[in-house]
Amino acid sequence: MASQSDSNKGVQGGAALWHGRFAQAPAQELMEFTQSLSFDRQLWPFDIIGSLAHVHMLGVTGVLSSGDAATISEALIVVRSEFETDEFVFLDTDEDIHTAIERRVTQLCGDVGGKLHTARSRNDQVVTALRLWCKHNVAQLTQRTLGLVDTLVLRAQQAGWDQDGIYLPGYTHLQRAQPILLAHHLGAHAWSLLRDVERLQQTLERLDVSPLGAGALAGSSLPIDPVLSAAQMGFAKVFANSLDAVSDRDFVAEILFDIALLGTHLSRMGEEWVLWTTEEFGFAQLDDSFATGSSMLPQKKNADIAELARGKTGRLVGNLTAVLVVLKGLPLAYNRDLQEDKEPLFDSMNQVSLALSALTGMIASATFNPDVMAQAADAEALAATDLAEWLVRQGMPFRQAHAVIGELVRVSNDTGASLKSAAAAHPSLGAEAAKLVGAGVGVRQRKSPGAAGPAAAWAQQQLLRQEIDRLRNISA
After folding, report:
1. DSSP-assigned states of every residue in 153-212
2. CB proximity list for 297: less than 8 A, separation 6 or greater
3. What is the C-alpha to C-alpha distance for residues 88 and 96, in angstroms, rounded to an integer?
4. Residue 54 falls in the annotated catalytic set
5. HSE on the CB side for 278, CA within 13 Å?
6. Are 366 and 287 within 8 A, CB to CB?
7. Fewer C-beta within 10 Å: the chain N or C terminus?
8. Cβ 73 vs Cβ 64: under 8 Å
9. Cα distances (angstroms) measured from residue 37 to each of 19, 44, 91, 301, 346
10. Of 3, 173, 289, 295, which residue is the catalytic one?
11. pLDDT in tens, the chain (476 residues)
12. Which fold is adopted by the domain 124-375?
């Protein structure tokens, strides 16, 4: 094998690995437009995993001699070390990470390195590395998402699930509706994130298929064993159709959808924190380490993490749209358009991972203002539904009860009289019904299964913990 230092220095030229068919070198404009090395170099660990598995399979099946397989494997291990120590040197002629690695292997072990690509095309090589990248990163993303769930559940526990728990107004149409436990509100976001985790896990299961051995589109005439290389890489399944194997990017679209929906959930969460931390709401305060200031207004304390979680969701949706548009008109099998799957995927994975970490820290360190929340939730109008349901329990049809209480609220608003006193004086209500209007009373009325009050909280806590444990066990 050539020495590492001699063969990895001073080389600036060379032909593209596919140059044999052509009488002229590729134009600079072509190389600049078609290169993907600027963004796909992060695939290097996974390309090496795939190449080592491929060489091992070629050696076992006798396509390569054991000596040649060992020589190429040793060179791949050297290349891996060069990447790990940031010593790998890229050349101008390296189109992508895959050809860069093959070029370096050939430098290290001479003509034997040319056997690395036996029975393999860049078509199946690229998608193999991308699937491996996805397996690794989707698994990490599920853990980050579960980390935010853990933070929400912890803050819910601290807020209290019982009758002494912190409560606030629940909203519809951004109008105060009914009092709910803060734990219930935080739990709602946890449930949506758990659905995101489950979707990611299902996507991970579907993408766990090795395409290596499909070749350019039709497989190989050599006696290769795709099952063996798949096992070496840790894939659960092997492709059944070579055309589908090299052209399938469903898994990219699925991941981008999962991330876009996850981002949408983070955006909703961010919107609430933007509102909650304003002086107008005052429900919470951000820790200084998770807030920003203004370059001009000294008094400002801005929820930039929450705002960016909201704003970046458009980017995540756009990345999904971009890939779907690329895929929609492609004939079988591989087309160079598929190179456009990576930048949106890498960007979305990076952005949503950053958002999860930032929001987790922001929520974990924030301070709630229970008195402000309770004052807003104890507004008398929020007892209106409870008064209507009291009338229902007395036998009045709900639509009639709704009209009675609606009129009572209107009169209270017009006259300035309290809803409590108006209820006490109403012939269909009286003093017993008026007891439903008071501080801390409304939240305790939310008793039905899955409801927002303390009576239903124990069952929800148990279900939430069970679902977290179930999904975490799947991810393990």
Report:
1. HHHHHHH-SSTTS-EEEEEETTEEEEEEEHHHHHHHHHHHHHHHHHHHHHHHHHH-EE-T
2. none
3. 14
4. no
5. 8
6. yes
7. C
8. no
9. 18, 10, 10, 41, 13
10. 173
11. 544 433 343 333 456 666 677 888 888 888 889 899 999 999 999 999 999 999 999 999 999 999 999 999 999 999 999 999 999 999 988 999 999 999 999 999 999 999 999 999 999 999 999 999 999 999 999 999 999 999 999 999 999 999 999 999 999 999 999 999 999 999 999 999 999 999 999 999 999 999 999 999 999 999 999 999 999 999 999 999 999 999 999 999 999 999 999 999 999 999 999 999 999 999 999 999 999 998 898 888 999 999 999 999 999 999 999 999 999 999 999 999 999 999 999 999 999 999 999 999 999 999 999 999 999 999 999 999 999 999 999 999 999 999 999 999 999 999 999 999 999 999 999 999 999 999 999 999 999 999 999 999 999 999 999 999 999 999 87
12. Fumarase C; Chain A, domain 2 (1.20.200)
CB 48 within 8 A of CB 97: no
- Rounded Cα–Cα distance for residues 410 and 37 (Å): 67
Burial of 38 (0-12, 13-18, 19+ CB in 10 A): exposed
CB atoms within 10 A of CB 380: 18
Distance between CA 469 and CA 434 in Å, rounded?
44
**What burial letters (b/e) apply to 89-105, b meaning 16+ CB within 10 Å?**
eebebbbbbbbbbbbbb
For the record, the structure tokens of 114 come out as 């040319």
Residue 190 half-sphere exposure toward CB, CA atoms < 13 A:
27
Domain(s) labelled CATH 1.10.275.10 in the chain stretch across 4-118
Q: Which CATH superfamily includes the segment(s) 4-118?
A: Fumarase/aspartase (N-terminal domain) (1.10.275.10)
How many residues comprise the chain? 476
Catalytic site includes residue 19? no
Helix (H) or strand (E) holding 404: helix 398-415
Do 107 and 116 contact (CB within 8 A), yes or no? Answer: no
pTM (predicted TM-score): 0.93
Helical segments of 27-168, H only: 28-34, 37-40, 44-61, 66-84, 97-109, 122-159
Which residue among the candidates 65, 66, 294, 448 is catalytic per the annotation? 294
